[in-house]
Amino acid sequence: MSKVTEMFGSLVFNEEVMRQRLSGACYQGWKTCIAEGKPLTLEIANEIANAMKDWAIEKGATHYTHWFQPMTGVTAEKHDSFITPIENGKVMMQFSGKELVRGEPDASSFPSGGLRATFEARGYTAWDPTAFAFIKDGSLCIPTVFCSYGGHALDKKTPLLRSMDELSRQAVRIMRLFGDEGVKRVMPQVGPEQEYFLIDKSVYEQREDLILTGRTLFGAKPPKGQELDDHYFGSIKPRIAAYMADLDEELWKLGVLAKTKHNEVAPAQHELAPIYTDANTACDHNQLTMEVMKKVAERHGMVCLLHEKPFAGVNGSGKHNNWSISTDTGLNLFKPGSTPSQNARFLLFLAAFIKGVDEYQEMLRCTVAIPGNDHRLGAQEAPPAIISIFLGDELEAVVESIIKGTEYVDQGKRKLDIGVAALPRISQDNTDRNRTSPLAFTGNKFEFRMLGSSQSISGPNIALNTIMAEELSQFADVLEKADDFNEALSSLIKETFTAHQRIIFNGNGYEDAWVQEAEKRGLANLTCTADALKTYLLPQNVELFVKHGVYTKEEFTARSETHFENYCKVISIEANTMVDMVKRDIYPAVCAFMSEVAGTITSKKAALADIDCSVEEKLLRELSSLSKELMVQCAALEEAIAKVPEGTLAEEAHYYKYTVFATMEKVRAAADALEVITSAEFWPYPSYAEILFSIK
Length: 696
Ligand code: ADP
Ligand code: MG
Description:
With 696 residues, the protein is α+β, with helices and mostly antiparallel strands. 48% of the residues lie in helices and 14% in strands. The protein is built from 22 helices and 20 strands. Strands 10, 11, 12, 13, 14, 15, 16, 19 and 20 form a nine-stranded mixed sheet that branches. Strands 1, 2, 3, 6, 7, 8 and 9 form a seven-stranded mixed sheet that branches. Strands 4-5 form a two-stranded antiparallel ribbon. A hairpin with a 4-residue loop joins strand 19 (439-441) and strand 20 (446-452). Helix 3 (24-36) packs across helix 4, helix 11 (340-359) runs parallel beside helix 15 (485-500) and helix 19 runs parallel beside helix 21. The radius of gyration is 28 Å and the shape is globular. The two termini are 31 Å apart.
């Protein structure tokens, strides 16, 4: 279909457009800057800026914005028009190299975790010339990094780019050891699968909780949920199909490789997966995808919910971060090869990954520690909060035979000598069946499945890249000094597998037995955000990022603070919303219904003095006692919010989890019990069934 091919990337100032619109010298200059990671000269920047502006105006744009990713995890933009006044009260459209390369948003209101006191509010943004500009809503968007004047990274892109550079540097060292002189750059590749819910706008608008917090704070279990599993991969309803088609088009225009779409397990839940690209582009594109999903839903009279757990008792939404590393010469370093030397390389990268995940379990757990994810991780539908790696039967047998020095039994019954023998063929089918593992090897990549649907994928990828860089640098240090490379390699792989075997788990992660087993193995089980974040600043984590230049100590500390602050704020907003809903909607509704029931009793008795009113009386008593419980817990919640103790951020988060959130659960229990005995006519909100089945 030529239409799609024409549409694809039509709103992106990509390499092809640059080749066409820039002078040969300028285009080459830009390419060299990227290849060598050098800043652009003003001359080149000016020419690019002018070409970008002309192209954008042809496409109907009037404004430009430096598009960046502050620590909030969403994107930010501040729009300036291209107009510049000239004589006679007229204007011309102008955009200079300076404006392209650097912008200065007043950044005082973005979280900085203490990196930038508000009186020195200004930060600057700088174009990331490895990411293409694009047009969104009439504005030319320039992907940028965001820093404070002190030079601290205030965003999620800068550390991601740094981590990619570092991973590349260390992986290239390893490639040289294997005699590969051609590889110049190694890039992490990422394909994030995005889950989301779609509901009708009319039901959304009646729910204060959805509007203010993105999730339902109340709601009794519906008579029909996902029991029948009839939604998963089910046929797509026409209204949803129209949405998905529209979404694909919008994403394609922006150059996003939207590929797969299907219904998910829960009613109203769907998934979109793109084709993987380099981590930086994947991260930009995932941010755009989330934004476009919401916008397109609006056009279709629907609302797209990206929260990790919009509905209790119904599957939540996650994001599977498929991650691999590949060379600029097209080799996937997690792909088991067909020759002994390729396999030795594969096993070395595998060993680095296993060691890294084992050593930095807590850090990886922290990268997915966001309040919404607390409702998923460890619950029955999502991976447990314990980090482990699933390798599949074949690869696990390989690892075991290496550790034990025993024969690996395949058709040939041979012993596996690293660097000498070839690995058995690892079939892809066999690796993809364990859906309960947080980190699964799926043939030629690792799938990190703990991410929440709403979160930026940047944090987890920064961690994966840096951890891998660290392990590869340790390996390179050893191997570069070795007299006999093959021998050193074999023992390094064997030692590493032996020392870190505990992180490998092929069983069912949803079983309670795994929790006990993991404890025996000494693996961390950080069940909630408040507990996980306490490990953020472990000395080994600080050392890791500082050593590789991904974060300064200050930058890293700032991230920790931002995460804690965000957690406390989210719980606080949810708690306040709950109180508001109880006092202004739920309790008054139940009171009205109680007088209706009381009225029934009175009028029945007035009509027939000896009539049986036991049903109504029982109901009235139940309503009365539950509403009392509701108001008692609501008062307790109000008090809990009012009395947040002074202390460290970790203590505050702990309080929000174990006091505020714990009380919220009690408020909710009373309200949900009331919902099922209160007349639907009186209940102030659409029920779960009405919301989940709102798209006909
Ligand atoms: P599943 O749902 O079975 O996990 P999908 O096809 O829905 O599979 O999603 C797989 C994701 O992994 C896609 O985004 C795909 O592009 C991505 N992917 C495939 N190969 C790689 C790779 N080598 N590195 C990174 N991501 C990959
Ligand atoms: Mg998957």
